[in-house]
Write a structure and sequence with these properties.
- Helices cover 39% and strands 17% of the residues.
- With 321 residues, the chain is of the alpha/beta class.
- The strands form three sheets. It has a seven-stranded parallel sheet with strand order 2-3-4-5-6-7-9, with helices on both faces.
- About 2% of the residues have low confidence.
């Protein structure tokens, strides 16, 4: 039985102990395909509250300030830092008490976490990496939102011994798909962005979605093979699911979109894990929404059920996740 290099196993090997990745969601952050810089409305499947519980928990800041590159000043920066600390200590205390975990990785999860003025990003990154027992930071972003200045800043953290990951939402390498889902960018500069980050010893994790509209299985596997060819340190695979208050929900209700089945998704995962190089860290192979916002597929409601099924199929081909 071959063990897959999961993120948990990677952390154990890297730090000699378990490390908890703590999701952080900060108010004020958005995306350039939401605010009109490149598009409006966001990706057709996007409802951040469905996969970012922290967005529901945090308090309203009382000021309508949205991050973007040209923001002259950020009057909510102190409040954002306070949110960062509150969310971190809540998660850290919980996992220390319940699981005896002593080390943590900050994960800036919701929206585009490099889409803000440099001074704002530096303050937030500095504060995050100075929290107790934090070994590094993982930043969710887009290929069109990471400047050389930010890359150089992240490289300094690496030089100081911190683990730094950039998690790029690629989703698909097909231009027609990216246009259909309203991604707001093409794929032309993706490989270069990966190279620039890895040249600075910043680790790159590519996110891919299986089950996007009008894509077949071979297209999904082609996206996987393409990003592997660009050079990656990690990968995150997850199924597309439909939640309320999205354009995808309207497509589904109008019969214009059929979600991927658990059987097809699992077959793709089996094939993917046999093609991904052994030294690439598998950050995730499942996802879902665990509340009434989920419309379809229903198998995405219970992660335990889907993972049990996927693990059983993997063991049949000699893979242990």
């Amino acid at each position: 039985m071959r063990e897959i290099l999961t993120l948990g196993r990677y952390f154990k090997k890297r730090f000699g102990q378990r490390v908890r990745k703590i999701p952080i969601s900060l108010q004020g952050f958005t995306c350039p395909n939401i605010d009109g810089r490149v598009a409006r409305g966001g990706c057709i499947y996007c409802c951040n509250e469905s996969f970012s519980p922290s967005l529901v928990k945090i308090n309203h800041l009382g000021k309508q300030v949205k991050m973007h590159f040209d923001l002259k000043e950020n009057p909510i920066l102190d409040a954002q830092v306070q949110q960062l600390k509150e969310q971190f200590f809540w998660h850290a205390d919980f996992h220390k008490e319940k699981f005896e975990i002593q080390k943590y990785m900050i994960y800036l999860q919701s929206y585009t976490n490099t889409y803000a003025p440099f001074e704002t990003l530096k303050r937030i990154f500095d504060e995050a990496l100075n929290l107790p027992n934090v070994v590094g930071i993982s930043i969710g972003t887009r290929i069109d939102c990471v400047s050389l200045e930010v890359l150089d800043l992240l490289a300094e953290y690496v030089k100081n011994g911190k683990e730094v990951w950039l998690e790029y939402g690629i989703q698909s390498v097909f231009p027609k798909t990216l246009e259909l889902i309203n991604r707001g960018h093409g794929i032309e500069d993706a490989q270069n962005q990966f190279i620039l980050a890895r040249q600075r010893q910043i680790k790159v994790c590519a996110h891919l979605i299986y089950g996007l509209p009008q894509e077949n299985e071979e297209m999904m596997l082609h996206s996987l093979r393409e990003v592997i060819g660009w050079g990656i340190d990690g990968i995150k695979l997850h199924p597309l699911y439909v939640v309320e208050n999205t354009k995808l929900a309207k497509m589904y209700k109008n019969g214009e979109y059929i979600p991927i089945s658990l059987e097809v998704y699992t077959r793709l995962i089996l094939q993917s894990l046999q093609e991904i190089p052994d030294d690439v860290v598998i950050h995730r192979i499942s996802s879902g929404a665990h509340d009434e916002m989920l419309i379809a597929p229903k198998w995405c409601f219970d992660k335990n059920i889907q993972m049990r099924y996927i693990r059983d199929r993997l063991r049949e081909v000699g893979l242990e996740y």
